[in-house]
Design goal:
This protein is α/β, with parallel strands linked by helices and about 425 residues long. About 25% of the residues lie in helices and about 25% in strands. It contains 13 helices and 26 strands. Helix 2 runs parallel beside helix 3. The radius of gyration is 35 Å and the shape is elongated. The protein starts with a helix and ends with a strand.
Amino acid sequence: MIPNSGHILNAALAVIGLIVFLVAYQFQNDNQRLEKLFNESGVTFKYDVDGETALAAELHGTDLTVELAEELSEKKELRRLTLSECDVQSSALDVLARLPNLKHLYLFNSSTDPSTNWSPLLDQLTLEDLVLDNVTITDEELIRINRDMLTSLDLKDCGQLTEKSIKSFAESEYLLKLRTRGIPVSIELCRHIAQNSPDLTFRVQPEDLIEYKPLTERYGVTHLDDDFRIIGVEINQDTAGILETNQDLFKTLNSLRLSKSSIDQEIWDWIEKQEKLESLTIVNSTMDLDRSIEPHRLSQLHHLYLEGVITSENEDEFLILPELPNLHTLTLKSPLSPGVSLENFSSDNLSFLSIEQNLTEEDWLRLKGHPQLTTLMIHDENIDEMRAEVIFSLPRLDQLFLIRCEVPEQISSQLSEADFSMREYRSGFFRDRD
């Protein structure tokens, strides 16, 4: 008997339905398997606005196997790949290199087979942005990568790299940003790059400059100008580094901060030779000088800050400040032992004065009528009639801060009626009086 056409059609539709079901079932199983694989491997994706197209993948603490790389390589639209603390099988590198649209590769603290290195991946990609952070790679391996589209390169703590790589990439035609850290580099090369690659944004850490190692290896912090000369330096404890550094590099030194340091005569003589020095800060340090500060020294200073400075074990040997004609701000912050004297001090340009030590009556009177002082901060003092008289004598005084001071009611009332603004600090808060 010949089956009728209706039966044939129904059978055909049933077969098609079964096929569609099996395909959908297999697709669902594949998706579930992939989702499980990615989740177990610590893979996270960032998607396009459609919510389906993966544009970026991040792997953290993952053993990147060939199987996982095969699945990642199916994400054809993937543009950014980040591997953080991953161990990558060498055979997986060739597979990852199949990603046709990968333009941004970030490798952080990741490793692969030393006999293979990263070349199977880096040599085949055409990247726009590459970050290598604590990755084992040599100059030869890095220099030969395709750089036809590379515009940004970040190198950090890659122990086998030298300034050979930096010089090579600084000469790349399309590179716009080059940042390095943990790679020793000479000032000569930095200046060469600045002069010959004006369109390149080049960032290098001061502690990586070879010439400044005597400072930075002793916990010194340097601030540099565009010519890689020191404009500011902060020294913590060990001052010997400033004497061991090429002195020509200090010609533009503008700011110096010494903390927890022992300042002997040799260091002080060095300080006094810094002709561009405008700001000097000494904190929690000892000064062992053969003589007082000579009047003609440090005349170019604009800012002087002394805090916790011990200048002598003899209670009668105060540090005598010299005439500092260009000084704008002076801070004397306790404890200063045995103290600071203003016996020889004068500066008509002084506009800010903060006193947190007991000045002698003679030193207070030396401030009387100062022509430029606009801000006065007084700590832990008894504001008696003599001190009040000095305060009222300052013709340009604009702000007065009294911090933990004892002020008689009569004087407090007079200060409140003055032309300048006054703020008192007591019991943990400021109180304004205008």
